[in-house]
Amino acid sequence: MHKHTHTDDDFDWAAMADLLELEGEAHSPYVRQALEELAHLSPRRILDIGSGPGVAACRLAETFPKAEVTAVDGAPELLARARERAGRLGVRLRTQEAAFPEGLADLEPADLVWSAQVVHHVGDQQDALDRLARLLEPGGTLAIVEGGLPVRWLPRDLGFGRPGLQERLDAARALNYNRMRDELPGTVAVVEDWPGMLRAAGLTDVRSKSFLVDRPAPLDDRARRSVRLWLERMRSMLGEFLDADDTATLDRLLDPTDPAGVDHRADLFLLTAKTVHFGRRPEA
Asked: DSSP 3-state assignment of 150?
């Protein structure tokens, strides 16, 4: 999911709060697994950069209850959602508003910095990683989430429309993504070798690991709702890249009165993988 920062002043992240929170919950198994990779750490201060509504930040607070965890985002509406979530879950969470990446210089350094699917929204991705690395205390760890596998929710053949809708949505998303990257201010072309980029930012002990999110059918109500909101977003964003048949298929999937729609299908599932890249700032 692409999220979390006001890199585009025309984009209303607050309107996406429900989608971001529901999707964060649906994908939460990968966060739990990734944090298990960090269980040997004893961080005193943790930053979640581009926290959105705080799903991962609250998980960090649960995992490291002795740490001071701060959710950092450019959208005050999303930070308010993060505080509400922390209150419901009974975890300690601070919030701080800061634009990404220019606002990072105003943050205090941390022993652990987490940032999920934020860097690719910035024109100069290497510069963004350099700034994230500078937030680390000596010996501190940076974990960034970028890449993985496309999400799948539906059978190849839905029983209507042309089979293979999700593959065509992937292709349309790729075209839309490339245009987004091209139009970002200060875009710098770079080979998206995330481990190599972390090393270029001065980090050592760099490694990557992918984590599976496997929620078989039938989905629970909140995960099902996240699929609906995501497909609504795809219908809105990708219309120019889809033909009339696929647009009609999406409309039928999103029809709340249709038994074959996502609100009612017994075969709706969630399958994806997220890749987390880890690096450590050398000791002084």
From this structure: strand
**CATH class for the domain made up of 13-281:** alpha beta
Distances in Å between the alpha carbon of 78 and those of 82, 83, 202, 205? 6, 9, 31, 33
- The span from the CA of 251 to the CA of 49, in Å, is 35
pTM equals: 0.93
Under a CB-based contact definition with an 8 Å cutoff, are residues 41 and 160 in contact?
A: no
Could you tell me which residues are beta bridge partners of residue 207? 278
Indicate the residue type of 111: D
DSSP state of 164: -
DSSP 8-state code for residue 275: E
Task: Please state whether beta strands 270-280 and 204-215 pair in parallel, antiparallel, or not at all (unpaired).
Answer: antiparallel
- Strands of 136-152's sheet in order across: 94-97, 68-73, 45-49, 110-116, 136-152, 270-280, 204-215
What digits encode the pLDDT tens for the residues 107-123? 999 999 999 999 999 99
C-alpha–C-alpha distance, residues 128 and 132, integer Å: 6
SS3 180: helix
Contact 83, 107 (CB under 8 A): no
- Site of tokens 């419901």: 88
8 Å CB contact between 19 and 230: yes
Which residues contact residue 61 at a Cβ distance below 8 angstroms, ignoring those fewer than 6 apart? 67, 69, 86, 91, 92, 93
Q: Which two tokens stand for residue 129?
A: 């990683």
| pLDDT tens string 146-166 | 999 999 999 999 999 999 999
Q: Where are the domains of the chain?
A: 13-281
